[in-house]
Amino acid sequence: MIRRDRVVPPLLAFGVFLAGWQLLVIVANYPTFILPGPLVVGQKFVAAWVDGTMEPHVATTLAEIGFGFFGGALAGMLTGYVLARSSLANRVASPYLVAAQAVPILALAPLMALWFGSGLLAHALIVALIVFFPVAVSTVVAVHGVDRRLLEMARSYRVTRRQRLWMVELPAALPGILGGLRIGVTLAVVGAIVAEWTGGDTGLGVLINLARGSLFDIPLLFATLLTIALIGVALYSIVLLVERRYAIPAA
Amino acid sequence: MTAEPGRALREPGPPPNDGSAPAIRLDGLRFDFRVGGRRTEVIEGLDLEIAPRSIVALVGPNGCGKSTLLRVIAGLLPARAGTVEVEGRPVTGPDSRVGLVFQESRLLPWRSAFANVAFPLEVAGRDRDARERRVTDLLGLVGLRDWSRARPAELSGGMRQRVAIARALALEPAVLLMDEPFSALDSLTRERFNVELLRLWDRIGATIVVVTHSIAEAVFLADRVVVLSPRPARLVADVVVELPRPRRPGDLDAATVTRTAAEIRAHLEGATDDAFAVAAGDVPAHPQPDEAIP
User: CA within 20 to 30 Å of B103's CA: A57, A122, A149, B12, which one?
Assistant: First the structure.
């Protein structure tokens, strides 16, 4: 059942936002190529989906996000677990991790393009890179935070390393890891757009470049931004749903 | 732990070994831990024999090493010297012959009561049918059959501790070690739990070693009360409780109990000055960690 008091306020706020936007455009009389009104953007959004302009770009971006997110998240979780359970690995590898994270992804993207071209592989790699760090860090923190008393309890029943991982550590660390995934999934969208910015044939980042460049279709630019935002919200919601379903915090 | 007539989980009869070996034998047991290069003696040459199917209470001042002693017996901590034997065979690591109930229930919060009790069986690789039968029996034994699907957060502190006891019994240990198992409960609940624990003990026929801060509790539960000194733990006294079984809460007023309790208290006071403050109160009840575990 959908609760009315949970749905109405956000919808109302969204309505106010749209009205304010439209009002600004009317009052200030901005030309469409500076700030198109929500109506124009809405029409363009629908049109771009209907006439098939949007679809190939969305497909490319989603593929990059999909591969990149899963790859980066998996690598981040594995690395995070190893770092949390081995102080040697932590001492050796942590400085590099932090250094790698300190370099902005925008600066790394051209390098990736140089090494791996401007196809799916290069773009997914950039997404994976940007997803990796928050997931790795949250995994380290979450695994460190696993109640030692539960681990001792498990040890008293002679758990193997694998049983300890799957039956105790992973479920106990899951809420923390999912928090990292939630940050990671929004960053994945950023990563994909930045990656496409550096080159490529399709993708929402490419479409933005086209819209403000050769096509000079500013409403299309806005419609693309809207699509990107929607993708971000949708992916975030999916992780949130998984979190609600599977992450049971300690009592 | 409601008594259900009929189904004993372990048939009465000779214990799994030939019956001549004690359930637990400690021989010259020593334990210490090192913090920052400093060695702290925790257990200093302890000899103890505990007969099969008896209940022994360990009392001693805070931080004297009782919890550590239980962990050494359970094989969670290695003895520095000396040996621990359960049913005549040495304990060299975590051991399925020994069940351990902690001060806190230590249930896995994401698992139901049922799945928590099933945990040791899963770890031991029992198949699903065997697990279900065993867990159903155990939950019935502790009176929680109707709560099998409840998560720990939905259970009261007492119920959680019952689940923890059922879990500790899952692999049919010969010895059940309990580390202040009811210290987090209020005094009335605690009294009831002690009665139920005796009933449970009657049905499972395991040997029980229970650490407690309450002399009354120790006397009520145990055949023998072992008094330990402040750290490093040495045996100060080994007091036999001459109170017939089955015992009832009213027995606590019996002259034997008062006499025995006074005797234990005297030993404790003799062993340490502040032991009185710690142990004389009937309900210390604050769930305080016994000592740091290295």
Answer: B12
B235 band by pLDDT with thresholds 50, 70 and 90: confident
B215 and B149 part of one domain: no
Mutate to test the interface with A, among B104, B119, B154 (most CBs of A within 10 A): B119
Q: If we measure between CA atoms, which residue out of B203, B201, B204 comes closest to residue B223?
A: B201
Judge whether B112 and B151 are in contact, CB under 8 Å.
Answer: yes
Q: Nearest CA of chain B to the CA of A176: how many Å? A: 14
Nearest to B109 among A154, A159, A251 (CB): A251
Same-domain status, B158 and B254: no
Q: Give first-to-last CA distance, chain A, whole Å.
A: 27
Cα of B4 to nearest chain A Cα, Å: 27
In whole angstroms, give the CA distance from residue B151 to residue A248.
10
Looking at the complex, does the CB of residue B125 fall below 8 Å from at least one CB of chain A? Answer: no
Task: Take residue B185 and report the two structure tokens written for it.
Answer: 């409960």
Q: What are the backbone angles phi and psi of residue B192, rounded to the nearest 5°?
A: -65, -40
CA angle B265-B266-B267, nearest 5°?
90
pTM of the model: 0.81
- Are A171 and B171 an interchain contact pair (Cβ–Cβ within 8 Å)? no
Are residues B78 and B168 part of one domain? no
Residues B76 and B199 in one domain: yes
CA–CA gap between residue B99 and residue B206 (Å, rounded): 10
A55 vs B15, which has greater pLDDT?
A: A55
Alpha carbon separation from A167 to A163, A244, B182 (Å, rounded): 5, 19, 27
Residue B152: which of A149, A171, A251 has the nearest Cβ? A251
Test B110 with A168 for CB contact under 8 angstroms.
no
ipTM topping 0.85: no
- Structural domain contains residue B92: yes
User: Contacts of residue B120 in chain A, CB cutoff 8 Å?
Assistant: 157
To 5 degrees, how large is the angle CA A101–CA A60–CA A75? Answer: 35
- pLDDT band of residue A250 (cuts 50, 70, 90) is low
Q: Which of A151-155, B4-8, B110-114, B195-199 has the lowest mean pLDDT?
A: B4-8
Helix (H) or strand (E) holding B97, with range, is: none
What are B21-34's pLDDT values in tens digits? Answer: 899 999 989 898 88
Q: Which range of residues forms the domain containing residue B154?
A: 112-172
pLDDT value of residue B251? 79
- Which residues of B fall within a CB distance of 8 Å from A152? 76, 102, 106, 293
Instruction: Tell whether B294 is covered by a domain.
Output: no
Burial of B30 (0-12, 13-18, 19+ CB in 10 A): middle
Q: What are B134-178's pLDDT values in tens digits?
A: 999 999 999 999 999 999 999 999 999 999 999 999 999 999 999
Which tokens is B176 given?
């059940």
Q: Three-state DSSP class for B163?
A: helix
Radius of gyration of chain A (CA): 22
